[in-house]
């Protein structure tokens, strides 16, 4: 039985919001200094401050559940393969957007059980807005101190189809998909906000034909599922977590409406 609940979701949302406040202190300060991680992706003091807060507060909230964060992803697969459930965290998703100060970065916290997200929170610090989801129960959007509002994917594709794509990554595969799709509007967006736009019905589809890590997607994956949408690999299987040593996801598509064969358009 899943441990996900609205009470736990609210507690995690508070943690994500406090992490967002840590990030904003850096964002609204002076020059943002970056260092390069092993994969050449940027790292800032904001990433580390958010990571420390989230890890400390999750361990206090649920001491029995381990935490896997992008900024401390050193747990050997032999150990984490035994985890029945764990927190999967990206303290600052969209560091490039953060450094360029375009506001399109998020805090991502997901609870994974049996290789699937069962609870997720995506917090947008500059908007003080959170997207929350529990698959099978629902999805919500809350702004500042306002009450949460239920969100749902679109029942039908718009005309032209509303496509969200990565602001930082675009390749020939996406162009080929768009050519097969026909009339469309492509909106470039950073971080896990692309998932959230599908979840709240502001976009129809997000094809991801480039590399992502599991902590990039898990929280927003839960939001999309809670909102009635789908996240599938190009083979039509559910996106799964913690099944191998590598933490890279296969290519996938996020969709709300089911009135088009999205996978056929991607093959």
The assigned structural class equals: alpha+beta
Helix content: 25-40%
How many helix segments? 8
Distance between the termini: 36 Å
- Supply Rg: 17 Å
Q: What does the average pLDDT come to?
A: 92
Order of helices and strands: HEEHEHEHEEEEEEHEHEHEEH
Profile the largest sheet: 7 strands, mixed
Tell me the overall shape: globular
The spatial strand order of the largest sheet comes to: 3-4-5-6-7-8-9
Strand content: 25-35%
Low-confidence stretches: none
- The overall strand count is 14
Kindly describe this structure.
This protein has 267 residues and is α+β, with helices and mostly antiparallel strands. Helices cover 31% and strands 27% of the residues. The chain has 8 helices and 14 strands. It has helices spanning 6-27, 45-61, 77-80, 95-100, 172-181, 193-199, 214-226, 262-266; strands at residues 34-36, 42-44, 67-69, 85-93, 106-113, 116-124, 129-134, 138-143, 149-150, 161-166, 184-189, 205-208, 230-233, 252-255. It has a 7-stranded mixed β-sheet, sandwiched between helices. β1 (34-36) and β2 form a beta hairpin.
């Amino acid at each position: 039985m899943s441990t996900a609940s609205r009470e736990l979701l609210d507690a995690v949302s508070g943690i994500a919001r406090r992490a967002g406040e840590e990030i904003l202190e850096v964002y609204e300060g002076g020059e943002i200094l970056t260092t390069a991680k092993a994969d050449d992706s940027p790292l800032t003091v904001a990433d580390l401050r958010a990571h420390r807060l989230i890890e400390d507060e999750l361990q206090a909230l649920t001491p029995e559940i381990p935490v896997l964060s992008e900024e401390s992803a050193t747990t050997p697969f032999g150990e984490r393969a035994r985890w029945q459930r764990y927190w999967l965290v990206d303290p600052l998703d969209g560091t490039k957007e953060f450094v360029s100060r375009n506001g399109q970065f998020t805090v991502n916290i997901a609870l994974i059980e049996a290789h699937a997200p069962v609870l997720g929170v995506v917090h947008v610090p500059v908007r003080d807005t959170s997207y929350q989801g529990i698959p099978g129960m629902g999805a919500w959007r809350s702004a500042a101190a306002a009450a949460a509002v239920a969100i749902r994917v679109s029942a039908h594709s718009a005309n032209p189809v509303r496509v969200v794509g990565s602001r930082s990554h675009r390749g020939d595969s996406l162009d080929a998909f768009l050519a097969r799709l026909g009339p469309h509007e492509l909106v470039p967006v950073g971080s896990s906000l692309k998932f959230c736009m599908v979840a709240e019905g502001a976009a129809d589809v997000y094809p991801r034909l480039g590399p992502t890590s599991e902590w990039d997607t898990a929280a927003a994956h839960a939001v999309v599922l809670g909102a009635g949408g789908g996240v599938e690999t190009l083979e039509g299987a559910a996106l799964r977590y913690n099944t191998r040593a590598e933490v890279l996801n296969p290519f996938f598509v996020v969709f709300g409406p089911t009135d088009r064969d999205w996978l056929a358009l991607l093959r």
